[in-house]
Amino acid sequence: MSETTNTNKEKKPPLNGRRALPPNNSNDEENEVPEMEAFGLIPRGFNPKDYLHVVDINMFKEPHEINKQQHHTDKYYSPKLIVRRGQTFQIQIDFNRPYKPGMDQFWLEYLIGRYPQQNKGTYIPVLVGDVLKPGEWGAKITHKESNSIRLSIMSSATCIVGKFRLYVAVWTPFGILRTHRNSATDTYILFNPWCQQDAVYLDDEKEREEYVLNDVGIVFHGNINDIRLRSWSYGQFEENILDACLFLMDKAELELSGRGNPIKICRVASAVINSRDDNGVIAGSWDNTYTYGVAPSAWTGSVDILLEYYSSKQPVRYGQCWVFAGVFNTFLRCLGIPARLITNYSSAHDNNANLQLDFFLDDEGKVDTKITKDSVWNYHCWNEAWMTRPDLPVGFGGWQVVDGTPQETSDGMYRCGPASVQAIKHGHVCFQFDAPFVYAEVNSDIVYSRREKNGTQVIEKIDTTHVGQLIVTKEVGRDGMMEITEEYKFQEGSEEERLSLETAVMYGVKKQTTQDTLYQPQTDVEMDFQVQKAVLGSDFKVTITFRNKSRNYYTATTYLSGNIVFYTGVTKNEFKKHSFSAKLEPYGSSAFDVVIKSSEYMSDLLDQASFHFFVTARINETGKILATQKATVLEIPSLRIKTQGEMVAGKEMSVTVEFTNPLKQTLQNVTLRLEGPGVLRTMKKEFRQIPTNSTLIWEVKCIPSRPGLRKLIASLNCDALRHVYGELNVQIQKP
């Protein structure tokens, strides 16, 4: 043992004068516990066998037994006991002889980490008494039979969440006798949304089933005019995932005594989910080159990512926002914190937190990409976690925004949250953590401005409704979409919305005034445009419409710019430029079509098949500019999944994935992935090429392990085509 302690000492920082013990921030490390703790000199005739001693401990830890059933932990793929805090669980102790209450004295000890201390909650002695107090540590005997006793044990509702070691201690006149270290009696204690005294208590059973126990979910993507959805396998109950999630807290060096607090856990997890500045779980990549890694769009769930990180301890490549959010959701649900994945359409990434996104136009009315630094993401995914906020005034508990995508630093690290959704809605952005940043993501204005030759800045247009138009999450108990925009903001243009903004400004959100710049928009002409829905690889048209509401005759020099963009709104390149002159009759409407050919965009297309169109028009008679922008996504073909044979837990079944290549080119080096929690572990297959119009068929055999309604999720990925998904609900019968 001495060798191991030496090596551990080298890793530990030297002790300083401020603390008596090194930091206790690893759930994995242990201390040695003496099996005989003598009170003094031991007389020669002492034989421990003369006293009560433990022969065996039964933990009732099988999925079908009482503990995992009552604690809603029967789905965890783990042989150990897993319980939720603040709720009783049962164990049975077999002694070498019948237990005599007046004469024998024993107690339980729960230990976590390497330096257990009672005042830190890392060493917990549990005495046997007559009554159990709700939400406080205690044990009582419920049943005695020959040499055995059954105990009902209550854990504290604020207890540390993690893996505890269990010892049974027996008092003798000469010292304390303990059971030896036995990992089979290790007990995982998790958060308990079913317990009223737990900080994560959620009172609706349907919501608990969705936000804690559902191991698949839906990611909404695409854009505001074309909402797409795909399934994501959270897999929080799969083998080794619970250990991987506990390892994340060790990696973040969160002191064990802080691990009963969901606020602290969320804050450190939002930093460790991304690899920036702490070598965390996922490395982000938004540049469309994913060499030496997996393209973000290829992942079908969190399990592969977490297990790879747990074994390699190195960041897994690559992720984008929904991948960070999917893995974060797995982490939260696995530990028992209710959580959901949120999508905000037209999400502002405001670099200088002034509540406005500045788009600078050049003389022709084109956006000047050199000096425009802010961007609007087509969509951005984050998470909400449910908890009380005793650190904030009353009323700000409930859903909290947490975001693992590295966008901006918070207190010097790439992390975000927890920020109270209620505080964001009412503009109370003074409350920790990172509320101003999230407030800007859903509330910024877009300001188009142009610099005149003499240096004055002219604001051409202010768009107050483009950002944060729609905020959604998966419905409870169904696969549909639930809109939650009104949880984040009041009705556009309402009195409450004004008030919320004024409150946010009062609390220090910078809001630039437009007084120092000229702003006199052209109000008597309206311009808009529509993009035709189109399948990847086909031609489509953009229709620009003008409505002249005045008695004047106008001509408009109109400019359309088509850009291929990352879903973050950052332009890769301009693939279409088209300008024309439009004649606008008094009180008349007119429409102009611009055709976009597939040959113009196919060679440069990025993985989300995302376009961004800017249309600007100068009214020649007044010199005023009209500007508007829209993102659009092409229809991407999907995968078909079929099953054959009967679907029974424990019996082999077959799954087939089919795909037809719709493009005018051969697809090279195609990777298919297929997974389904409780049905099959992730399978991968590579195909060298798929010619135009030909169909690929991949058949997989598997043995489902869990009965019930399960979901199969597949993805196809290659350089020319990404974000190709398919899914299928399957009902697995009991054997």
TrEMBL record:
**UniProt name for this protein:** Coagulation factor XIII A chain
Role, per record: Factor XIII is activated by thrombin and calcium ion to a transglutaminase that catalyzes the formation of gamma-glutamyl-epsilon-lysine cross-links between fibrin chains, thus stabilizing the fibrin clot. Also cross-link alpha-2-plasmin inhibitor, or fibronectin, to the alpha chains of fibrin.
Q: Which residues does the UniProt record annotate as the domain Transglutaminase-like? A: 313-406
From the UniProt entry, list the residue stretches annotated as the region Disordered. Answer: 1-31
Q: Which cofactor does it need?
A: Ca(2+)
Q: Write the Enzyme Commission number(s) for this entry.
A: 2.3.2.13
| Taxonomic source organism | Ibidorhyncha struthersii
Keywords, sorted A to Z: Acetylation, Acyltransferase, Blood coagulation, Calcium, Cytoplasm, Hemostasis, Metal-binding, Secreted, Transferase, Zymogen
Q: Name one GO biological process term.
A: blood coagulation, fibrin clot formation
What does the note under cofactor report?
A: Binds 1 Ca(2+) ion per subunit.
Cite the GO molecular-function annotations of the record: metal ion binding; protein-glutamine gamma-glutamyltransferase activity
Q: Which family does it belong to?
A: Belongs to the transglutaminase superfamily. Transglutaminase family.
Annotated localization: Cytoplasm; Secreted
Q: Could you say which enzyme class this protein belongs to? A: transferase
Q: Name one Pfam family in it.
A: Transglut_core
Assembly, in brief, is:
Tetramer of two A chains (F13A1) and two B (F13B) chains.
PROSITE patterns hit by this protein: TRANSGLUTAMINASES
Q: Which SMART domains match?
A: TGc
User: Which reaction equations make up its catalytic activity?
Assistant: L-glutaminyl-[protein] + L-lysyl-[protein] = [protein]-L-lysyl-N(6)-5-L-glutamyl-[protein] + NH4(+)
One GO CC annotation, please?
Answer: cytoplasm
